[in-house]
């Protein structure tokens, strides 16, 4: 019995080493291997009539439903977010630009510091209904400039 237990322990230890080896020898994180991401440019535009334009980049792989880049902006109250448009995404694994434009009600935004969140979201058909599936999300402090 002791020989059998030692053999099993040795085999189990070897299996654990083999399973851990790829993780231990994996290359450090490389941004070129990221398959899905969304970024936000550090500056957004705010026109005199309150129209906001936000932009950035995205990268995604093929999905089963339509994919969109949506964005929100907040300023003095972080819990109050204003939706700023949506852009249909092309999910071919390449990096693309997105630009969203919208006009929050009541001229709620002013030039200056703001926070933008961009989301890469797919509407996947599940049981006949399109349900949201999130691919990537990024929040960034930006400056809204007049123009």
Keyphrases for this structure?
147 residues; alpha+beta; Immunoglobulin-like; 2 domains; eight-stranded mixed beta sheet; 1 helix; disordered N terminus
Q: What is the domain tally? A: 2
CATH class term of the largest domain? Mainly Beta
CATH-assigned homologous superfamily of the largest domain: Immunoglobulins
What is the CATH architecture annotation of the largest domain? Sandwich
CATH fold assignment of the largest domain? Immunoglobulin-like
**What percentage of the residues does DSSP assign to strands (E)?**
over 45%
Low-confidence stretches: 1-32
| N- and C-termini, Cα separation | 81 Å
Kindly state the number of beta strands: 8
Order of secondary-structure elements: HEEEEEEEE
Q: Taking Cα atoms only, what radius of gyration do you get, to the nearest Å?
A: 23 Å
How would you sum up the global shape? elongated
Largest sheet: 8 strands, mixed
User: Which structural class is indicated by helix and strand composition?
Assistant: alpha+beta
Count of helical regions: 1
Description:
With 147 residues, this protein is α+β, with helices and mostly antiparallel strands. It folds into two domains: 2-29; 32-146, Sandwich (Immunoglobulin-like), CATH 2.60.40. It has one helix spanning 2-25; strands spanning 37-38, 43-46, 52-59, 67-74, 82-88, 95-102, 112-126, 129-146. The chain is elongated. The protein starts with a helix and ends with a strand. Residues 1-32 have low confidence and may be disordered. Residues 35-146 form the DUF6299 domain. InterPro entries: DUF6299.
